[in-house]
Design a protein that fits this description.
Blueprint lengths: L5 H20 L2 H18 L9 H22 L21 H9 L2 H12 L4 H8 L3 H17 L14
Helix pairs in contact: 1-2, 1-3, 1-5, 2-3, 5-6, 5-7, 6-7
Length: about 170
């Protein structure tokens, strides 16, 4: 099996990585920063990356680490500015689903991360447990509780997390 070209990997995975970053971080600017840093790391690692590497799982793992880094940086310093920030990209977040994203953002952190990594990032619960800590069962339960909470608010009547009609 031959490894796909780097540009193709970016094209295929960029919306998923941005959805994960936005679901975990909430802020568009912070999510965009984590997204960009994730793909810079991919570009650096790409030449030596084994062909058997699950690129999607690798990207979600790195995006998780970048989200932690962004959160740490954000908590360390205030960033005063006289200019308005750049407009947020709509890549990975359709405008017609803003209520869903607001509800995902309001979930407790472990539930939000488990929902993002499983339903948006496609990771197995064992991989999620490694990222957020805890057991596979705890990761499964956090994702289940998060989806249950979102359904209770009637936000998913007819729409799944990827925005596709049911």
């Amino acid at each position: 099996m031959m490894k796909q070209p780097f540009e193709q990997a970016v094209t295929v995975h960029r919306p998923m990585v941005l959805r994960v970053c936005r679901a975990v971080l909430g802020s568009h600017t912070d999510a965009d920063d984590a997204w960009a840093e994730t793909f810079l790391d991919l570009m650096e690692a790409w030449p030596g990356m084994p062909e058997a590497t699950k690129v999607e799982a690798w990207l979600v793992h790195v995006a998780h680490r970048k989200a932690i880094d962004v959160t740490r940086r954000r908590s360390r310093h205030a960033i005063p500015t006289n200019e308005l920030p750049e407009p947020a990209s709509s890549l990975g977040q359709p405008d017609d689903q803003m209520e869903i994203w607001a509800s995902v953002k309001s979930l407790p952190p472990k539930q939000r991360q488990a929902v993002a990594y499983h339903y948006l990032g496609g990771l197995a619960y064992g991989e999620i447990a490694e990222l957020i800590g805890g057991s596979t069962d705890a990761a499964r339960r956090a994702a289940s509780d998060g989806i249950k909470s979102l359904r209770r608010h009637h936000l998913f009547a007819g729409v799944n997390l990827k925005g596709d009609p049911r």
